[in-house]
Write a structure and sequence with these properties.
alpha+beta; 6-stranded mixed β-sheet; 7 helices; 14 strands; 27% strand
Length: 255
């Protein structure tokens, strides 16, 4: 082998090595960093976004406090999760829900839904509330991040590492009893949604007068800690949230 051939071979190897290192550096530079699958992508739904403050509060609580806090402050949350998943078409009316379990914590390297055109994103979540919705026997449970309702693709052994903060049965049909209103059975947000869906009159305050009539969008903006919102329903009115049905009966009264 002459000197020119040796120089070419050594030089050629060096050039190939530089190209390989350059390609690796380019791939490493252009690789997308993990994304926060809750607050770094569009939500599938904003219907339960109000729980974000509670999720943040739970980060500073002891494990023993979290379940009680959730049950006290969000007693209708299991029903809310199922209602909005049905509304989004994620759970078919023919499917019966047996229970809803909540878990809290952080996970990395997971796949989740996004509210935009990207079907799945790879990333992580930190200090989030997860709902595992158990469907009738033979159907895989539906697992969502409550704040954004982004579905997740988490194996059982992974979501079981999160802290359990409550398990609940749910009631998806009810009749308005004497002295009751919608908010005896569902959360305020769901009550407004039902009023809009079934064209039930809404009023600000507890007097149902024409000059106090408001729209569902106006009702959603009212701070109910300081102002009451009334949905006009009647004793004997029947609601089926599984099939999204309403049947009117009896005299009208306030919620």
């Amino acid at each position: 082998m002459n000197r020119r051939t040796l120089i070419w071979r050594v030089g050629g190897f060096g050039l190939l090595l530089m190209i390989a290192v350059g390609l690796f550096a380019y791939q490493d530079w252009t690789e997308e960093p993990p994304v926060d699958v809750v607050r770094g992508v569009p939500p599938v739904s904003r219907a339960l976004q109000h729980v974000s403050y509670a999720v943040d509060d739970m980060a500073d609580m002891s494990e023993a406090e979290r379940g009680k806090y959730l049950e006290t402050n969000f007693p209708h949350l299991p029903q809310d999760v199922v209602y909005y998943l049905r509304d989004l078409g994620k759970i078919h009316p023919s499917r019966e829900i047996t229970r809803v379990e909540f878990r809290y914590g952080s996970l990395g390297d997971i796949m989740a839904e996004s509210g935009d055109d990207i079907e799945r994103v790879n990333g992580y979540f930190e200090n989030q509330l997860i709902a595992i919705v158990y469907v009738e026997q033979g159907v895989e449970p539906y697992i969502v991040i409550v704040e954004c309702l982004n579905g997740t693709f988490i194996t059982v052994d992974r979501w079981k590492t999160l802290q359990a903060v409550g398990e609940h049965g749910i009631t998806e049909s009810f009749v308005i009893g004497r002295g009751e209103g919608l908010t005896h059975h569902v959360s305020y947000g769901t009550a407004i949604d039902l009023a809009e869906r079934f064209e039930l009159p809404l009023y600000v305050g507890n007097r149902m007068r024409s000059d106090r009539r408001i729209t569902p969008n106006e009702a959603r903006l009212i701070d109910t800690d300081h102002e009451q919102v009334t949905v006009k329903v009647g004793v004997g009115d029947f609601f089926d949230l599984r099939r999204m049905e309403y049947r009117k009966a009896g005299r009208q009264q306030q919620s």
